[in-house]
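Everyone, study these two lines:
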Amino acid sequence: MVTGERAYLQLCKDILANGSGRNDRTNTGTYSIFGYQMRFNLKEGFPLLTTKRVPFKLVASELLWFIKGDTNIRYLLENNNNIWNEWAFEKWIKSKDYTGPEMNNFGIRSQQDEAFNKQYQEQMTIFKEKILTDNIFAEKYGHLGDVYGKQWRNWKTSQNNSIDQLKNVIEQIKHNPNSRRHIVSAWNPEDIPNMALPPCHTMFQFYVADNTLSCQLYQRSGDVFLGVPFNIASYALLTHLIAHECGLEVGDFVHTLGDAHIYKNHIEQVQTQLERDIRSLPTLKINKEKQSIFDFELSDFEIVDYNPHPTIKAPIAV
C-alpha cells in the first residue's frame, strides 16, 4: 500500500488520469473521483507535504479556532490567517450595508482581470480592517454560521441542550479507550442552512491500540490541491494534541475522501507539484508543560527541519 506523501501524489495522478469532468457549485469545473483513502504513519514524521510548502501556522491557528469553538474570523485575522476571508467577505458584499464597487464572482474575476483584482484587494483590505477594529461590524459579518467549532464544542440538541463533542471524546479515550464510539461529527443537517460552507471534513473517529492513538477522517468533499494538504496536517496535529493529553503515542492518520477533486484552474499547479521529488518529513514539537488541548496557543508548537519545495499559488473557488 502506498502511504504518506506518495499516497497524496498518487491521488493527484489518479484524478488527472481517471477523473470525471464535472460542473460544480463555484462554476469553476473539476475533475473528480469518488472514494479514496490515504494513510499516514505519524511516527515517521509530521505530514506537512514537502513537494510544496504548506504554511503550518495557518493550519495550527485554524485548528485552534475550531478547538475554541469559535466561528468568527476575527481570531484568524488576529493571527494573520486569511483562509476563511472569502466566505465572510461574500456575506458583506451581498448585504445592503455594502456600497463599494460590484464584486460578484470575485474569486474567479480577481484572477483574470488586473483592474478588478485591484478593486477587490482594496475592498478586502477595508473588510479585514473593519472586522479587526469594529466590534459591531465583526459581530454582523465576521461569523460564518454554525461551522466546525460550533458543532465540535456546542452541538445543540432537540431539547436545546449542548453537547461538547470534543471534550467528551477526550474523556472517553482516557476512561474507555477500547470504545468504538470515539466520534466527533461536524455534519448537523439542521444547521447546514446556517453555515457559510457546509463542513467538508464531516466526521472523525479515534482508535486506541497498543498505547497509540490513531484517527480516521471522513471528508465528503476534498479540494485536493489547496484544501487536502491542510486537512492532512490539521488532523495530524489534532491527533498529536489529544494523544499528548491522554498519555498515548501517535499512530496513524487515515484520510478517507468522498468526492476528491482537482479544480480545472489548478491543473497546471498540480502538474508542477508532481514533477518535484519528495523530501524528508519535519518533526512536530509541542510545549510539554501544557496538558489540556484547550490550553494550547500558537506559540506552543514548533515545526523542526521542514525543508519543502516552494509554495505553488492557485485561486480559491468560493
Observations:
- Residues 85-143 form one domain.
- The chain has a mean pLDDT of 95.
